[in-house]
Specification:
The protein has a single domain, classed as Roll (Pnp Oxidase, Chain A). It is 17% helix and 40% strand.
Length: 145
């Protein structure tokens, strides 16, 4: 399972809800500007892939296309779309989309010892506000027994 949230019912959560499918494409340092451009509010029907100058390719299981340059793409079937609430019970203009992963595309160049290498892919992580970081170093932390 994978989930993403959206402040406002923007194109991505609305399309996921209406189609019942979505593709999660992992963003990297080299694709940061294209990822940012894809978040721009565009007129309905305008192709975000064209706008962001991002090559798209067909998915294998779901209808939405995937980003061809992404080191990993996860094809998903929507299991739930939840409008979140404040602790007072008031509905927020924030949505959580949950999907079951039904198809996986991984660029083998980013696989090390049988596992996806997040540092090698230089994955973007959003830190909040307008802040992002690039994952360059990974460490393991085992849970206590």
């Amino acid at each position: 399972m994978i989930a993403f949230s959206s402040e406002g019912l923007k194109d991505t959560p609305r399309n996921a809800r209406d189609m019942g499918e979505f593709v999660f494409n992992l963003a990297t340092e080299s694709s940061a500007e294209q990822m940012n451009r894809s978040s721009e509010r565009l007129p309905e029907g305008h192709d975000e892939f064209v706008h962001a100058q991002t090559p798209a390719g067909p998915s294998q299981v779901v209808r939405p296309p995937r980003v061809l340059g992404s080191p990993a793409s996860l094809e998903c079937i929507v299991t739930d779309v939840v409008q979140l609430r404040a602790n007072s019970g008031r509905e927020l203009d924030t949505y959580l989309v949950i999907g079951e992963v039904v198809g996986v595309h991984i660029n083998e160049a980013f696989v090390t010892e049988g596992r996806f290498d997040t540092a090698k892919a230089q994955v973007l992580a959003r830190c909040g506000y307008h802040d992002y970081t690039v994952v360059r170093e990974i460490f393991q932390m085992l849970r206590p027994e």
